[in-house]
Amino acid sequence: MLHPTQKAHTNPCNGVRGGSRCPNEAMEGSDFCPACGGPPQLKAREQKSLSGYMLAKYQARMSDFADSDGIKSLKDEIGILRILMEERLNQIQTPLDLLTHTHTISDLATKIEKLVSSCQRLDKLTGQFLDKSQVVQLGLEILTIITKHVDDQKAIDNITEDLLSLITNS
Fold first, then answer.
1. Which of 156, 130, 152 is nearest to 143 (CA)?
2. How many C-beta atoms lie closer than 10 Å to residue 114's C-beta?
3. What are the residue boundaries of the structural domains of the chain, listed by start?
4. Is 17 helix (H, G, I), strand (E, B) or coil?
5. In sequence order, what DSSP letters do the residues of 95-131 get, joined into one string?
6. Alpha carbon distance 9, 115 (integer Å)
7. What pLDDT is attached to residue 135?
8. φ, ψ (nearest 5 deg) of residue 141
9. How many CB atoms lie within 10 A of CB 122?
10. HEC secondary structure over 50-85
11. What is the spatial distance between Cα 92 and Cα 29, in angstroms, rounded to a whole number?
12. Whole-number Å distance between alpha carbons of 89 and 142
């Protein structure tokens, strides 16, 4: 029951003060007035809403990655980590800076090493990686094709030398 001096609110506060219901109007979007906890409730609702938005945003982004043909390639991530490492190293001006950034640099180096190893394993599993014996075999097959179509023995010898040098130095 309202006191005669109180007017009916369209959005009454649900707070309790002094053993009776708070006579104030609740804040828009809240169940309480500013004195009874409206601002914290609004902030919590806003945070929950933002959290839901971010989750939906990231889920959509993850879906994009899952549908990507290049998802099994870690080369972009390796590149990003190497850029981060370079940026961190460029920030170092003094021995104290180096000491300060040692943990971060070490962490980045470890992550790069793990990603490179994982990338090499994936490339090998998916047939996108050639070991040295496979490269030599490929070179021999290329030479066989060349000798079918080229009659100049000196040219074939020069091509063979260049291919062997390339394979040896790679």
1. 156
2. 13
3. 10-67, 70-129, 132-169
4. strand
5. HHHHHHHHHHHHHHHHHHHHHHHHHHHHHHHTT----
6. 62
7. 79
8. -65, -35
9. 15
10. HHHHHHHHHHHHHHHHHCCHHHHCCHHHHHHHHHHH
11. 49
12. 43
Residues of the chain with pLDDT under 50: 1
State the burial class of residue 33 (Cβ atoms within 10 Å of its Cβ: 0-12, 13-18, 19+).
buried
Which residues sit opposite 143 in a β-bridge? Answer: none
What pLDDT score does 34 carry?
Answer: 86
Which amino acid, one-letter code, is at 141? Answer: E
The whole-number pLDDT of residue 17 equals: 79
Rounded to whole angstroms, the Cα distance separating 134 from 137 reads 5
Place of tokens 């094709």: 145
Both structure tokens of 167: 């394979």
Query: By three-state DSSP, how is residue 49 classified?
Result: helix
| 33 contacts 42 by C-beta, under 8 angstroms | no
Query: In degrees rounded to 5, what are phi and psi of residue 32?
Result: -130, 160
CA angle 88, 118, 126 (to 5 degrees): 135
